[in-house]
Amino acid sequence: MTVNTRQAENSPLLFLFRIIQGALIGGGAILPGVSGGVLAVIFGIYRPMMAFLSRPIQTFKTHWKLFVPIIIGVALGFWGFAKLVAWMFSGDSPIPLALFIGLILGTLPELYRAAQKPRNGVRLTDREKKNNLTALIVSFVALMAFLFFISRQTSAQDLTPTLMWSFVSGIIWGFSLVVPGLSSSSILLFIGIYTKLMAGVKDLNFSIIIPLMIGILIVAFVFARFVDRLFERQHGIASNAVVGLVASSTLAIILFPPPEYAIPDFITGAICVAVLVAGFIAAHYMGKWGDKIKPAE
């Protein structure tokens, strides 16, 4: 390692830059339609992050200069974007929900195209195409059935982030960090607990934050190595399964929106459509930009 390289690693600007990257990853885990895992891939720290989650002590000793600012940034981003989301959903307007639906839908074309690309440059065989399609359909149907079951169980009650629900939400949320492309926030939006969790994080309610973080960390540490290997060895199947999950959670929100976000009149409906289209376009071009700057694997 040269002197210039060591100076670059110790640079305060690089430390600040890593904090910003971590904040965006934390925010990506918060915002529906955005994936913290995808942002980690774009920033070139997904593989180090998976190694850290798989072997935390060993990896931290050798890469602590990378992980310290990233961890600080993730915590700040998670809290900061929670305040933003809590503010946006503070009323009963359906417009923020329309924006997030547009953002989610805007990621689907790029996710689908990426899922069909062979990693070794060789054209997919008919069997591989069939397996990919099967994975997409199975994940779509399975999540739709799960969301329908959850909605039937929670529709008659005012779902609140109890210790159990905060922990379960953390488990669901954890997959956004380790599965590139998956936005677990949309699932929590459909269940109806998302905005209340964000309000709890914003207010630093540790009876919500602690079980939420425990659930996230359990998923991250237990499934990090498995998910990394799955995407490495069965990229097509894993990627198409993510497409099915994202499509299913989004369709569920569109077909069965939370009652408090019902569209009251034509003008509000027109605004929602415009915002949805704007969100779709923004996410679509952000996905294209991310694909261009994604580091080579």
Please tell me about this protein's structure.
This protein has 297 residues and is an all-alpha fold. The protein has one domain. The protein is 79% helix and 0% strand. Helix 4 packs across helix 5. It is globular, with a radius of gyration of 19 Å.
Task: Map the helices and strands.
Blueprint: H1 3-9, H2 12-30, H3 36-42, H4 46-54, H5 56-88, H6 95-116, H7 126-154, H8 163-178, H9 184-191, H10 194-202, H11 206-233, H12 235-255, H13 266-293
Largest sheet: none
Q: From the structure provided, what is the oligomeric state, counting identical versus distinct chains?
A: single chain
Work out the strand percent: under 5%
N-to-C order of helices and strands: HHHHHHHHHHHHH
Structural class: mainly alpha
CA-based gyration radius: 19 Å
Q: Between the first and last Cα atoms, what is the distance in angstroms?
A: 23 Å
* Overall morphology: globular
Summarize this entry quickly.
The protein is an all-alpha fold. The chain has 13 helices and no strands.
